[in-house]
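If you are new to this repository, start here. Below is one unmodified record pulled from the training split, so you can see the exact layout before writing a loader.
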Amino acid sequence: MSIDNPKYQKMLGDLLAVCRKNLPKVNEDLVTKAFEFALEAHKHDLRASGEPYFSHPYEVALIVAEEFPLDDTTVVSTLLHDVVEDTDFDISLLVKEFGKEVAEIVDGVTKISGIFKGHDITKAENYRKMLLSMVKDVRVIIVKFADRLHNMRTLEFVSPDKQRRIAQETLEIYAPFANRFGLARVKWELEDISFKYLNKEAYEELVRKVKGTRKDRESYIKKFAEPITSKIDEYKLRYELSGRPKHLYSIYRKMIRRNNPFEEIYDLFAIRIILETESSYDCYTTLGIVNQMYLTVPDRFKDYISIPKTNNYQSIHTTVIGPEGRLVEVQIRTRKMHDIAEQGLAAHWKYKEGKIKVKDDMDNWINWIRDIFEETSRDETRREILEDFKLNLYQDEIYLFTPKGELRRLPLDSTPVDFAFEIHSKVGYHCIGAKINGRIVPLDTLLHSGDQVEIIASKNQHPNKNWLKFVKTHKAKAAVRKWMNKEEEKIAAAGKEIWEKKIKKLKLSFNREDISKFARKLKFENNAQFFKAISQGSISVDDILFERKSSETEEQDKILEFEHFADIARKDAGGILVDGKDSHILYDYAKCCSPIPGDPVIGYTTVGEGIKIHRKTCNNLINLSKSDSSKLVPVEWPSTDGSLFVAGLLVKGEDSPGIVNEIANTVVSYRNTNIKSINISTNESTFEGSITIYVSNLEHLNILLERLRKVKGLYHIERFEGS
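And here is the target side for that same chain:
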């Protein structure tokens, strides 16, 4: 295979001629260089048809130059589009030889092609979204459309299974794609060829019926059009009138959707009027002529000129009742509108006439594509709306494959850990590494659309806090946090076990509140953090308990202080009365409830210790009286006759200037209550202590308690009752 071969000289000449005809400017040396490079790269390759493989990129380049005439960069990229995928040449060589722009387009087409190898189409919209998430240059899609179009035109040379797979892929992905890009002609051709290979019997039957009715249709259309053309000629408008092309797959879909036979599909009768003018006003003039000639069907009128479709499609559609009562659809548009409807992006580019730079124009079109997916036109059905896809949304997503070819969707900047948790939480928990496209990578590597990801797992691997720094998905973050919390619970449980073994050995006992005091004192948020510190060796149980023992003397002092207070209170009250009189009977105060003046009391006769004075609410007394109530003796405190008895109060609160004065004023201000003593100690921002006061009765005491509870900053107050 040599460029000097007359065959290839002619092919090159034909391609350059088409480029010169259709492109605004052509770098012929660059196109020639790409032609020679592709010819050399594919010299040993053959197509399924037996032809040299080079015929494929060449034919695709011709399609681009003829049907999508954007620029010479697109033609060059098309000639080279299979070089990286099918030969030993890599992308870096293309950058060196043809520049970064061409290389990026080729690389984009290669990635798109690679996505579909070995993967079944299970959810077409996900593949379309994935393609959009990968494409940064619209020309990548244009080259891929042309590539797919040529492959479909030569599909007869591959096996039946491959024919069906490619046809299904084309029908579900590329045809809707072409429609959204405004490439109507490409869409119809892709659909009809796909239909041919997916339902051959229905296709061939429709071909026979369309051919069988052709003469009747052509005769009818001629009869229908004559009065319209005569009137348009009077307005001296230049135009082209033709029967609108009949697309077999469209007819088939309407037959299925409406459950009507072929003979009842009305828009087999249709014409298109293309005006050689730049004024849309002439389109409305032509519409007026059609409406003069024939009766319109009101609900079949659509004005896409004043309100274009989202892919920039513009045309007037109206349906009228023609001769013999047959319905005929009429489309009216300018030549520019027609070209844009048929060629989409390519026609738009052509009509720019070089006024906008290629890069700026491409940016504008990328913005247009984003806008396409924001809204749908009024005539689109709910199902079609659901099939729409928003490029600006899917650029925030990536589409990835498992080793078995299953498609997974994740947010942009996701990592193998996110992918692992997307597969299953167990896979995520034991994820130790990953392979991206067969290459081992770190867990914080960013994934890209089209990557095949394989997770490497180990039973010995578990999540760690560092994962939270790079995981992207909520699922992964929540799972890692859940794992870390469980691990902390295990560590705390181990610390609690160490604590309990130690205090059991020392024959000590602490309730939950005691442990909370230790935790707060050591600046831990809760008991769990306290036990976790013990487990991790941050604090020593021995040190804590030693400090506890050193404070026991202080605790004893507090106990003695209460006993001292009780003695004073009882002495001030004048002892106790048995059966209403001062008695010399031996009695003592029960230590289980430590009654003090003001408490309702009762006596219990004991052997050897006289009468034990209990509070009436004492649990021990209640249990004793159940066994022998005859031992109960009525007792009472002496009548005060206006005298007072001593009561003790325990207080806790937030330390603040003047708090002691405020407490004292609150006590004194009620009935001029006399304070015997106030003992307050502070610790950082809090205080606690005791107050002894003289009260006349329990009602007096309870009112004082209520008043003190309203003092701001005093959050705990209770009667000093000992145990």
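Two things worth knowing about this chain: Residues 482-535 form one domain. Residues 353-395, 549-560 have pLDDT under 50 and may be disordered.
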